[in-house]
Every structure is written in C-alpha cells, then in structure tokens.
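Below is how a single chain appears once it has passed through the pipeline. First comes the sequence as given, then the structure the pipeline wrote out for it. We keep one example in the README because the format questions we get most often are answered faster by looking than by reading.
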Amino acid sequence: METQDGDIYNAVKSLRKYLSVPQSDCIQCVKELGLIPYLASLLDNSSEEILIEITWSLTNLTAGSNECCEILCDLGVHVKLLELLNTENVELKKEVMWAITNLSAGNTKVKNLLINKGLITKIVNILSTPNLSLFLLRNICWLISVLCSKCSKAYYTKLKDLFPYFKALIEMDDENVNRDILQAIYFITEIPDPNTSLDIIHYINLKPIIKHLPPFTSISIKILGNLCALNEDCVNNLIQREDILTVLSNLLVDNKNEADVAWMLSNMGSGPSSNLKEILNSGIMEKLCYIGRSSNYSVKRQAIFALANLCLNANEEFIWKMVNLGTLDCMINEMSMTDIELVQVVLNTIEEILIICEPVEGDNEMYEKFNSIGGRDKLLTLAQSKNKEIADLANKLLDYQQPIN
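Resulting structure:
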C-alpha cells in the first residue's frame, strides 16, 4: 500500500472505529467536520482495503441517523454502493451489503431509490452465484427482509423476482436465513391484495412455512393467517392437504401462541361451511372455547373473535354444536362495556345465531338457552349504555326475544 493510500486507510479506519462507539454526538461531529462528502468521494478510486473501511464507516453512519441516509443519497452514494456489489472481494461485498441494508432500513425514500436503481436485480444475481458463502447469504437475506418491510404495491412487482428463491431459502438448515425470509414473506402478506397470496402459494407453497411451526411458530402463523384472510383457496389447501388443524390444535395448549392461533382460526372460519365442518370435527373448538375463558385478556379476546367469525359462517346444526361446547357462554361473559368493539361483535353474532336458529313455529330453544345462562340480564344492562350503537343493539335483541313462561 502506497504512503498516501496508507494514510487514507489509517484515517478512515480510525473514523470507522470512532463511529462504532455508541456516543450520541459522533455522527453529528462527522457531519459538522464535512467528512461525509469526503467519504463519498473516496468511493470512486480507492483500493479494496480502503473501500472496506469506507463502507463499514457508512454502515455505522446510517445506523444512527435517518438524516445521514438522505445526505448520502443526495451525494449519489447509493448508486456507487450498487456498483460495488459487483466486486469479487467477499469481504468488501459483505460490507457493501451492510451499508445498503442500513440505508434501506433507515429511510423508505432511500429504499425506493435503491429499488429503482436495480437493487433487486443485483440481489438475484448474488443469489444465483454458485457456492455462495453462508455469511454472504445471511447478509442478503437480512437485506431482503428489510426491503420487503412496509412494501408498497408499486414495488411489489419488482420484489416478485425474489420469490423463486424463497422456497429453497426457508428450507435451508440455517435459522438465520429461515427467520429473515419468513419475515420477508410476512411483510409481503401484509399487502392488502389477494394477488400476493396467490403469488406466495404459487412460488413458495405452504409446506415450507408449516415446517417452521416451530421453531418460528409466531411468524409462521401470522403468514398463514394473512394468506387465509386474503384467499379462500389457501384455507382449503391448509385444511384439506396440509392437516394444519392438527398442528394448530396442539399449539392451542402453548401459552406463547394461543392468541395467534385463535386469530388464524378466525380467518380460516370465514370460508365455506365445509371448512367449518373440518374445524369442528378436529376437536379444536373445545380448546378455543377453553381459552375463551382465559385469564389473559388478549388471548380471550382473540378467541371470542374467532368463535364469532366461525358462528357467522355456520348453519343451525353447526351453531348448536358450537353453543353446546360453550361458545355462547364465552360471549355472554364478555357482554360488558370494557371493550366496545368486542361487545359490538358479540351482540351482532348473538343476533345472527338467534336468527339462524329461529324455528318456523313453536318455542325457540336458542332463546331459552341464551336466557338460561344470563344473556337477557346482560342485555338489560347494555340497553342503558351511553353508547348509542351498543344500546340500540341490546334493545333490538330484547325486542327480538320471546318471553319465557
């Protein structure tokens, strides 16, 4: 290394170390000294040793400042970093990936600029590299996860170029890779567009995701739940082919995942009655009713939402089975004013149950069941509510009921 290069190398290395110390004023000092434009200029004609230190410094800069991300992009650093991804130097490529990831994570505007400049194509090229080292693969998977976070529909079509690689990546025997790709898939399924679920099912299928129940139970359930909410075929696939109900039933006894499982069942129950029959026959409803009485309110709340959704798609036969398992008891227990949204859901569901179970003639046994477990008393209280919508719903149900002799 020549003397001038050696001086630059030592200076940049010292700067990188300075920026790695967790001090609140480090980045501000670098900005005030005008070193950011200087670092950016060094990306053009420096040795690989210096470039490694520069990109490492940029990683530290962008980790602590959203403003720095925009300054660097205004200087064209994002374009230079994309060019450096072509390097054969593995260590330099790793540092470039870190810098690009931090740029993408720190600022959505910058992330969109990188995507527009061809970042996805660069990633595809790297993933296609034979014998790609594991630490580079881990870096690239983390970058993919960051890019998919808060993804807009506008960039979804570009991200689709990555999908053909997802299946192999989540089947790899490496938890870091698995976790980041599952996280990326979860972010994609958060896009409210049924086409996203069709694409996921087409390119990835569901088995690799189910495979990770556990060790990545929570994120896998959230992915499957989002897919079920977006696409009915996904529900049918899970129930008919993948035996997901057995998996979910086992998870309902796991305190860590009860709420997530209940939420997913709520989405699954929104499909045709054939799905509901499978859910009822699986024995999962007993467990769902059990956690509907949980002392953990968030778990109980999600279970009741699931029970309500299942009831709304059931016929009279299935509703009676669900009521006999304790569904109505769970709902009536929560007919208080502590959770307005939940009360509204419960009242609407009870109205639907009473309508579906109304006989052509004679006494309505569901009315009698409802009253016998305290339903009418709860309605009388809710009818006095200051919340007009709640009071109106309660009075409507009181008017709807037949008196008990």
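The two ends are 100 Å apart (CA to CA).

See the next section for the split statistics.
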